[in-house]
Automatic annotation (TrEMBL):
Pathway: Amino-acid degradation; L-kynurenine degradation; kynurenate from L-kynurenine: step 1/2. The keyword Ubl conjugation does not apply. The lineage of its organism: Eukaryota, Metazoa, Chordata, Craniata, Vertebrata. It comes from Lipotes vexillifer. Its EC number is 2.6.1.64, 2.6.1.7, 4.4.1.13. Its cofactor is pyridoxal 5'-phosphate. It catalyses: an S-substituted L-cysteine + H2O = a thiol + pyruvate + NH4(+); 3-phenylpyruvate + L-glutamine = 2-oxoglutaramate + L-phenylalanine; L-kynurenine + 2-oxoglutarate = kynurenate + L-glutamate + H2O. This is Kynurenine--oxoglutarate transaminase 1. GO terms for cellular component: cytosol; mitochondrion. GO terms for molecular function: cysteine-S-conjugate beta-lyase activity; glutamine-phenylpyruvate transaminase activity; kynurenine-oxoglutarate transaminase activity; pyridoxal phosphate binding. It comes from the Eukaryota. InterPro entries: Aminotransferase_I/II_large (IPR004839), Kynurenine-oxoglutarate_AT (IPR051326), PyrdxlP-dep_Trfase (IPR015424), PyrdxlP-dep_Trfase_major (IPR015421), PyrdxlP-dep_Trfase_small (IPR015422). The keyword Oxidoreductase does not apply.
Amino acid sequence: MMKLETAAETPSCLKITDMIRDYAVIQALDSQLGSFCAFLRLSLWLVMTKQLQARRLDGIDHNPWVEFVKLASEADVVNLGQGFPDFPPPDFAVEAFQHAISGDFMLNQYTKAFGYPPLTKILASFFGKLLGQDIDPLKNVLVTVGAYGALFTAFQALVDEGDEVIIIEPFFDCYEPMTLMAGGRPVFVSLKPSPNQDGELDSSSNWQLDPTELASKFTSRTKALILNTPNNPLGKVFSRAELELVASLCQQHDVVCITDEVYQWLVYDGCQHISIATLPGMWERTLTIGSAGKTFSATGWKVGWVLGPDSLLRHLRTVHQNSIFHCPTQGQAAVAQSFEREQLHFGQPSSYFVQLPQAVQRCRDHMMQSLKSVGLKPVVPQGSYFLITDISEFKSKMPNLPGAADEPYDRRFVKWMVKSKGLMAIPVSIFCSVPHQKLFDHYIRFCFMKDESTLQAMDKKLQKWKDELRP
């Protein structure tokens, strides 16, 4: 039993009776001084309390998706904002998932940390042919929790304090906060539309990088460039000439290229997707990111991957093994079986990668015609799930929509459209850096990766809108 020391043994210590007396005095003062004492206690607590959140979270706590998804859930709207299919994945993929759940009971257990072996093997075989590389499934493939997880792992593995990351805007909105969380500094360069003939729809192919401006963004501190082709939200597919420009600058400045190619199978009008890793000298400095969710129309599966040289991937594996360690086994098994099926049918009319873009292009064309009927001006996308549409005429006719004075116009327009017209879109300014939001605040993004019934529901809303516009 612990011995209680006496005052004689510890003359420098207060006696227990003294401590009780002092506490009583403090209580008496507290009751007399009241709120002043409470204020002093609170001030002392604030001074002594450590900051709870890590500094890496400063400035990135607000996510516009939370606001706009909540807005859509509170109203009777046709949701054309969020990028997910509202139709089933192909039968062979669903059957593969069902088999993974009901078949080998060991698929309920852990698999190898960096990917289920049949999946890494088929990814190496399938993409090795496309990229012109002899891909080792153990060294050149990493399976992640969706492409989102692949991006996060890449930024954490390669971007250090003070490193600069070049981001082409408009950009998928996670690129900036992921750069900041890694301690990096985002450097933005904008795609700019070229003039088009009067009466013609603009095309995403007309949106170009200025070569001189792009070159000026590279410095001795540049660590990486993030490329998204086909681009979200614009739908631009970068041409070979544009990719060669990016590749030349990356090689000249010893910069890593992180290329987000999740929509690579969704290209239209005979357009060709080219992986920058296939260009001379680029495999050694490129991370190519893909997504089973976008590939097989099953975004909830959250199976993604990164392909690249071992010199880069070894660092991603370090992050991966010290964060999630490995991804769910059954989803990986289903994706492996789906790719095995596609490898047998690749390039043939029976291939899902042939059939899907044909079907989605019809949805794209349907949506563009419908949006034009109410005075919206779609920018024809070469690829992806999305198109953006110009709302400049509405901005000139309805400049004073409700909202904060400093809120970009496209955000106020979307809120008005949700409440007044029952249609949900996403403002393009959320895909831009703050200094450049005003350059893009007259565009909104629609997702056309939707079922025919959803497009028909859209048509009904637009018809009502068109009737209201008639004099």
